[in-house]
Amino acid sequence: MNRLPVLSLDSIFLFPRCDNQLSLDNNSYSSYWKKIILRSLKSHAGRLLIVPNKEKISGDLKDYPIIGTLAEINLDTFVENSKLIIDSLKQIHFRGLERVKVINLKEKDDFLEGEWEILLEKEIDEDSLNELTEKFVRHLPEILERTKLSSIEKLPYMTMMRGNISNLIDFITQNSREVDMLTKWKILTSLDLGERLEILLSIPDRQRIEKDIEKETSEEIKNQQEEYYLREKIKAIEKRLKNKKNAGGSEIGKYLERLEKKSLS
Fold it and tell me: Which terminus in the chain has less CB density within 10 A, N or C?
Protein backbone atom coordinates (compact mmCIF):
# COMPACT_ATOMS: atom_id res chain seq x y z
CA MET A 1 0.00 0.00 0.00
CA ASN A 2 1.33 3.46 -0.89
CA ARG A 3 2.25 5.79 1.92
CA LEU A 4 1.08 9.38 1.93
CA PRO A 5 2.04 12.51 3.88
CA VAL A 6 -0.19 13.14 6.90
CA LEU A 7 -1.45 16.63 7.63
CA SER A 8 -2.90 16.97 11.14
CA LEU A 9 -5.13 20.02 11.57
CA ASP A 10 -7.10 21.52 14.42
CA SER A 11 -8.39 24.57 12.53
CA ILE A 12 -10.48 22.86 9.85
CA PHE A 13 -12.22 19.57 9.06
CA LEU A 14 -12.30 18.00 5.61
CA PHE A 15 -15.06 15.52 4.75
CA PRO A 16 -15.29 13.19 1.73
CA ARG A 17 -16.62 14.80 -1.46
CA CYS A 18 -16.36 18.23 0.11
CA ASP A 19 -14.02 21.15 -0.54
CA ASN A 20 -12.26 23.16 2.13
CA GLN A 21 -9.40 25.60 2.38
CA LEU A 22 -6.53 26.07 4.79
CA SER A 23 -5.24 29.55 5.54
CA LEU A 24 -1.46 29.83 5.19
CA ASP A 25 -1.31 33.47 6.16
CA ASN A 26 0.10 34.58 9.52
CA ASN A 27 0.15 31.10 11.04
CA SER A 28 3.05 29.64 13.00
CA TYR A 29 2.56 26.28 11.25
CA SER A 30 2.42 27.70 7.72
CA SER A 31 5.99 26.86 6.73
CA TYR A 32 5.58 23.27 7.98
CA TRP A 33 2.26 22.87 6.17
CA LYS A 34 3.76 24.23 2.95
CA LYS A 35 6.55 21.63 3.10
CA ILE A 36 4.01 18.81 3.46
CA ILE A 37 1.92 20.21 0.61
CA LEU A 38 5.01 20.53 -1.60
CA ARG A 39 6.03 16.93 -0.91
CA SER A 40 2.49 15.81 -1.69
CA LEU A 41 2.57 17.60 -5.04
CA LYS A 42 6.02 16.42 -6.04
CA SER A 43 5.90 12.81 -4.87
CA HIS A 44 2.23 11.83 -4.58
CA ALA A 45 0.38 13.66 -7.38
CA GLY A 46 -1.09 16.12 -4.88
CA ARG A 47 -2.63 13.49 -2.62
CA LEU A 48 -2.28 13.38 1.16
CA LEU A 49 -4.08 12.29 4.32
CA ILE A 50 -5.83 15.00 6.36
CA VAL A 51 -6.69 14.06 9.93
CA PRO A 52 -8.12 16.09 12.81
CA ASN A 53 -5.88 16.80 15.75
CA LYS A 54 -7.66 14.70 18.37
CA GLU A 55 -5.76 16.25 21.27
CA LYS A 56 -7.22 19.65 20.37
CA ILE A 57 -10.73 18.19 20.28
CA SER A 58 -10.68 16.12 23.46
CA GLY A 59 -7.95 14.40 25.45
CA ASP A 60 -10.22 11.34 25.75
CA LEU A 61 -9.82 10.59 22.03
CA LYS A 62 -6.09 9.88 22.00
CA ASP A 63 -6.57 6.09 22.18
CA TYR A 64 -9.09 6.00 19.33
CA PRO A 65 -8.00 4.98 15.81
CA ILE A 66 -6.88 7.75 13.48
CA ILE A 67 -9.75 8.50 11.12
CA GLY A 68 -9.36 11.13 8.43
CA THR A 69 -9.85 11.91 4.78
CA LEU A 70 -7.92 10.96 1.69
CA ALA A 71 -7.58 14.31 -0.07
CA GLU A 72 -6.10 15.97 -3.09
CA ILE A 73 -4.76 19.47 -3.49
CA ASN A 74 -6.58 21.74 -5.91
CA LEU A 75 -3.74 23.66 -7.52
CA ASP A 76 -3.95 24.74 -11.15
CA THR A 77 -0.27 24.84 -11.97
CA PHE A 78 2.56 22.66 -13.11
CA VAL A 79 4.42 20.62 -10.50
CA GLU A 80 7.71 22.26 -11.57
CA ASN A 81 6.36 25.63 -10.47
CA SER A 82 4.63 24.37 -7.33
CA LYS A 83 7.18 25.66 -4.78
CA LEU A 84 7.07 29.16 -6.18
CA ILE A 85 3.29 29.08 -6.27
CA ILE A 86 2.89 27.64 -2.77
CA ASP A 87 5.30 30.15 -1.23
CA SER A 88 3.11 32.94 -2.57
CA LEU A 89 -0.24 31.43 -1.54
CA LYS A 90 -2.27 32.69 1.41
CA GLN A 91 -4.54 29.66 1.36
CA ILE A 92 -4.61 26.18 -0.13
CA HIS A 93 -7.69 24.33 -1.38
CA PHE A 94 -8.36 20.66 -0.69
CA ARG A 95 -10.86 18.23 -2.10
CA GLY A 96 -11.98 15.35 0.12
CA LEU A 97 -12.10 11.95 -1.59
CA GLU A 98 -12.71 9.13 0.90
CA ARG A 99 -13.07 8.39 4.61
CA VAL A 100 -9.96 6.51 5.65
CA LYS A 101 -8.34 4.86 8.61
CA VAL A 102 -4.69 5.88 8.90
CA ILE A 103 -2.30 3.12 10.01
CA ASN A 104 1.41 2.44 10.39
CA LEU A 105 2.42 6.03 10.98
CA LYS A 106 6.13 6.66 10.55
CA GLU A 107 8.30 9.73 10.60
CA LYS A 108 10.29 10.44 7.46
CA ASP A 109 12.48 13.54 7.06
CA ASP A 110 10.65 15.29 9.92
CA PHE A 111 7.26 14.52 8.36
CA LEU A 112 4.64 11.95 9.22
CA GLU A 113 3.59 9.46 6.57
CA GLY A 114 1.03 6.73 6.87
CA GLU A 115 -0.78 3.96 5.08
CA TRP A 116 -4.53 4.15 4.71
CA GLU A 117 -7.61 2.00 4.37
CA ILE A 118 -10.82 3.26 2.80
CA LEU A 119 -13.75 3.02 5.22
CA LEU A 120 -16.99 1.98 3.57
CA GLU A 121 -20.32 3.13 4.92
CA LYS A 122 -22.43 0.46 6.55
CA GLU A 123 -24.78 -1.06 3.98
CA ILE A 124 -28.50 -0.54 4.47
CA ASP A 125 -31.46 -1.79 2.48
CA GLU A 126 -33.50 0.43 0.20
CA ASP A 127 -36.45 0.73 2.60
CA SER A 128 -34.17 1.88 5.43
CA LEU A 129 -32.46 4.38 3.12
CA ASN A 130 -35.83 5.78 2.02
CA GLU A 131 -36.89 6.08 5.65
CA LEU A 132 -33.71 7.95 6.58
CA THR A 133 -34.07 10.20 3.52
CA GLU A 134 -37.65 11.07 4.50
CA LYS A 135 -36.50 11.82 8.04
CA PHE A 136 -33.69 14.02 6.78
CA VAL A 137 -36.01 15.95 4.45
CA ARG A 138 -38.58 16.34 7.25
CA HIS A 139 -36.01 17.83 9.59
CA LEU A 140 -34.02 19.74 6.96
CA PRO A 141 -35.47 23.21 7.74
CA GLU A 142 -34.67 22.65 11.41
CA ILE A 143 -31.15 21.42 10.58
CA LEU A 144 -30.41 24.42 8.35
CA GLU A 145 -31.76 26.80 10.98
CA ARG A 146 -29.59 25.28 13.70
CA THR A 147 -26.45 25.08 11.56
CA LYS A 148 -26.93 28.61 10.21
CA LEU A 149 -25.82 27.84 6.66
CA SER A 150 -26.55 30.60 4.19
CA SER A 151 -28.42 29.87 0.97
CA ILE A 152 -25.21 30.49 -1.00
CA GLU A 153 -23.51 27.72 0.94
CA LYS A 154 -26.30 25.18 0.97
CA LEU A 155 -28.27 25.34 -2.28
CA PRO A 156 -25.55 24.55 -4.88
CA TYR A 157 -24.42 21.47 -2.99
CA MET A 158 -27.95 20.21 -2.49
CA THR A 159 -28.35 20.34 -6.26
CA MET A 160 -24.94 18.85 -7.04
CA MET A 161 -25.29 16.00 -4.56
CA ARG A 162 -28.71 15.12 -5.93
CA GLY A 163 -30.26 14.32 -2.62
CA ASN A 164 -27.49 12.03 -1.37
CA ILE A 165 -28.10 12.52 2.34
CA SER A 166 -24.77 10.97 3.32
CA ASN A 167 -22.90 13.68 1.40
CA LEU A 168 -25.30 16.37 2.60
CA ILE A 169 -24.78 15.44 6.26
CA ASP A 170 -21.02 15.60 5.73
CA PHE A 171 -21.23 18.93 3.91
CA ILE A 172 -23.47 20.54 6.52
CA THR A 173 -21.30 19.27 9.36
CA GLN A 174 -18.07 20.46 7.80
CA ASN A 175 -19.25 23.95 6.90
CA SER A 176 -21.34 24.90 9.92
CA ARG A 177 -19.69 26.98 12.62
CA GLU A 178 -22.51 25.98 14.94
CA VAL A 179 -21.26 22.37 15.02
CA ASP A 180 -18.53 21.94 17.64
CA MET A 181 -15.27 20.10 16.93
CA LEU A 182 -16.17 16.98 18.90
CA THR A 183 -19.47 16.58 17.03
CA LYS A 184 -17.66 17.03 13.71
CA TRP A 185 -15.22 14.30 14.74
CA LYS A 186 -18.06 11.94 15.73
CA ILE A 187 -19.78 12.37 12.37
CA LEU A 188 -16.52 12.03 10.45
CA THR A 189 -15.66 8.75 12.17
CA SER A 190 -19.14 7.20 12.00
CA LEU A 191 -19.83 4.72 9.19
CA ASP A 192 -23.50 4.37 10.13
CA LEU A 193 -25.70 6.77 8.14
CA GLY A 194 -28.52 6.59 10.68
CA GLU A 195 -26.12 7.37 13.52
CA ARG A 196 -24.64 10.34 11.64
CA LEU A 197 -28.11 11.74 11.05
CA GLU A 198 -29.04 11.34 14.73
CA ILE A 199 -25.84 13.14 15.79
CA LEU A 200 -26.65 16.00 13.43
CA LEU A 201 -30.23 16.20 14.71
CA SER A 202 -28.96 16.34 18.30
CA ILE A 203 -27.07 19.58 17.69
CA PRO A 204 -28.46 22.12 20.16
CA ASP A 205 -30.43 25.07 18.85
CA ARG A 206 -28.02 27.76 20.02
CA GLN A 207 -30.31 30.60 18.98
CA ARG A 208 -33.21 29.19 20.99
CA ILE A 209 -30.90 28.58 23.97
CA GLU A 210 -29.60 32.15 23.78
CA LYS A 211 -33.15 33.50 23.61
CA ASP A 212 -34.18 31.40 26.61
CA ILE A 213 -31.15 32.57 28.58
CA GLU A 214 -31.84 36.19 27.60
CA LYS A 215 -35.48 35.82 28.65
CA GLU A 216 -34.55 34.20 31.98
CA THR A 217 -31.92 36.86 32.63
CA SER A 218 -34.38 39.63 31.79
CA GLU A 219 -37.00 38.14 34.11
CA GLU A 220 -34.45 37.74 36.90
CA ILE A 221 -33.35 41.37 36.55
CA LYS A 222 -36.98 42.48 36.52
CA ASN A 223 -37.69 40.47 39.70
CA GLN A 224 -34.63 41.90 41.40
CA GLN A 225 -35.69 45.43 40.46
CA GLU A 226 -39.22 44.81 41.75
CA GLU A 227 -37.86 43.37 45.02
CA TYR A 228 -35.56 46.36 45.47
CA TYR A 229 -38.42 48.79 44.78
CA LEU A 230 -40.71 47.00 47.25
CA ARG A 231 -38.03 46.86 49.95
CA GLU A 232 -37.31 50.56 49.57
CA LYS A 233 -41.03 51.31 49.64
CA ILE A 234 -41.46 49.28 52.82
CA LYS A 235 -38.55 51.15 54.40
CA ALA A 236 -40.13 54.49 53.47
CA ILE A 237 -43.53 53.42 54.86
CA GLU A 238 -41.96 52.15 58.12
CA LYS A 239 -40.04 55.40 58.51
CA ARG A 240 -43.16 57.48 57.97
CA LEU A 241 -45.16 55.35 60.41
CA LYS A 242 -42.41 55.69 63.00
CA ASN A 243 -42.37 59.46 62.59
CA LYS A 244 -46.14 59.60 62.85
CA LYS A 245 -46.08 57.44 65.96
CA ASN A 246 -43.47 59.64 67.64
CA ALA A 247 -45.36 62.78 66.73
CA GLY A 248 -48.69 61.32 67.81
CA GLY A 249 -47.27 60.02 71.11
CA SER A 250 -46.01 63.47 72.02
CA GLU A 251 -49.42 65.16 71.53
CA ILE A 252 -51.24 62.41 73.42
CA GLY A 253 -48.77 62.73 76.28
CA LYS A 254 -49.39 66.43 76.57
CA TYR A 255 -53.17 65.92 76.50
CA LEU A 256 -53.02 63.27 79.24
CA GLU A 257 -50.80 65.55 81.31
CA ARG A 258 -53.36 68.36 81.09
CA LEU A 259 -56.17 66.01 82.08
CA GLU A 260 -54.18 64.80 85.07
CA LYS A 261 -53.58 68.37 86.28
CA LYS A 262 -57.29 69.21 86.03
CA SER A 263 -58.25 66.17 88.06
CA LEU A 264 -55.88 67.14 90.86
CA SER A 265 -57.11 70.74 91.12
Answer: C
